[in-house]
Amino acid sequence: MPGGVTALPASSRRSETLGGGSTDLVVPVLKPLKIGDLVVDPPILQAPMAGYTNFAFRQIVRQFGGTGLLATEMVNARGFVWLDEQEATHPDRLWGVAEEPRPLAVQIWDNDPETLAKVGARLAQEYKVSVVDINFGCPVRQVTQRAKSGSYLLRTPDRMGQIIERVVAACHPTPVTAKTRLGCSRDKINIGEVAEIVEQAGAAALTVHGRTAADMFRGEASWDLISQIKPRLKRIPLIGNGDLSTPQQVVEAFTRWNVDGVMIARACLNKPWLFRQAAAALRGEPIPPDPTLEEERSLLLHHFDLVCQRFGEERGAVLMRKYACCYAQGRQGARDFRKQVVEIKTSAEFYDVVRRTFPKA
């Protein structure tokens, strides 16, 4: 049975000081989230994000704790098969997957059931991942228009069902999940129909981002529409995703909206400790403070070292530009730091820019 939540009565509310202010939190009574036979506890998931959630980033998230299930970047199934046929090294997006702790989900994308099934089976049997997730939500043009994949498949829910059925059969007993959006556009919201097809096809869980494909990442995620999906599901859990950036918002997702789990995405890129804070809030415990700026600076340099161990110093310096910008987000002096860090080409330059211009207040 999927997990669920109920709110404690008002007399059981706890008051926590968050960000300098006092906020009454209705602490939910949580059941662990179950994805097939996998227990996800706490029911907080890290979203797969292309270009960001690689092995180095996942190590940073694990360092803080609070995440029930981590995920890789999404993997191009067709590209994986091609590399395999050429006996080449498997994609960088599978860096670390074979050895790192479980549970771990790997997300794959394509529009061909056989290709996805072939890759899913390899991930389940050879890599022994905890969950194989299928991407039906990516809205970027390269995936939708060029490859007719990701959120493009919301136009053909029956095709989604065929894909899920084939991947589920290939991966058994490893659970297969689906991540999607509300629909192609605001006037073509079909997530209710999609949810029923996803469940009937054998998926073990459904994650819904509260925007449409046309929305991209603009506007606000519609949690009201996410909550309306729950009655359409009879056996599998519903995981909500979109605009969760504070512990309070995570608690509210469980107490106000009808979800069994939550997935945190962009907010964790500049706050990888958010999972730990959200997990504490869900337990009714004091919220751990943010790291100091000095601690953040040390964390950034540690992250850089992890990336360089894989890609070398020169390529690592270039790859770390976007992460460095995330670390500085919202800080005084962040603009000057970003302006300089996006130009660095060597590790020496990276260390120098961090030393001189990383925000100090």
Automatic annotation (TrEMBL):
PROSITE patterns assigned:
UPF0034 (PS01136)
Q: Which reaction does it catalyse?
A: a 5,6-dihydrouridine in tRNA + NADP(+) = a uridine in tRNA + NADPH + H(+); a 5,6-dihydrouridine in tRNA + NAD(+) = a uridine in tRNA + NADH + H(+)
Q: Which residues form the active site?
A: C138
InterPro entries, sorted: Aldolase_TIM (IPR013785), DUS-like_FMN-bd (IPR035587), DUS_fam (IPR001269), DusB-like (IPR004652), tRNA-dHydroUridine_Synthase_C (IPR024036), tRNA_hU_synthase_CS (IPR018517)
Q: Which Pfam families match?
A: Dus
Please give the cofactor(s) recorded in the UniProt entry for this protein: FMN
What EC number is given for this enzyme? Answer: 1.3.1.-
Record bears the keyword Oxidoreductase: yes
| EC class (word) | oxidoreductase
Q: Name one GO molecular function term.
A: tRNA dihydrouridine synthase activity
Could you tell me which residues belong to the region Disordered?
A: 1-20
Has the keyword Ubl conjugation been applied to this entry? Answer: no
Sequence positions that bind FMN: P48, M49, A50, Q107, K179, H209, A265, R266
Source superkingdom: Bacteria
Q: Which UniProt keywords apply?
A: Flavoprotein, FMN, NADP, Nucleotide-binding, Oxidoreductase, RNA-binding, tRNA processing, tRNA-binding
Q: Where are the transmembrane segments?
A: none
Q: Which residues form the DUS-like FMN-binding domain?
A: 46-358
Q: Which family does it belong to?
A: Belongs to the dus family.
The protein's job, in short, is: Catalyzes the synthesis of 5,6-dihydrouridine (D), a modified base found in the D-loop of most tRNAs, via the reduction of the C5-C6 double bond in target uridines.
Mind telling me what this protein is named? tRNA-dihydrouridine synthase
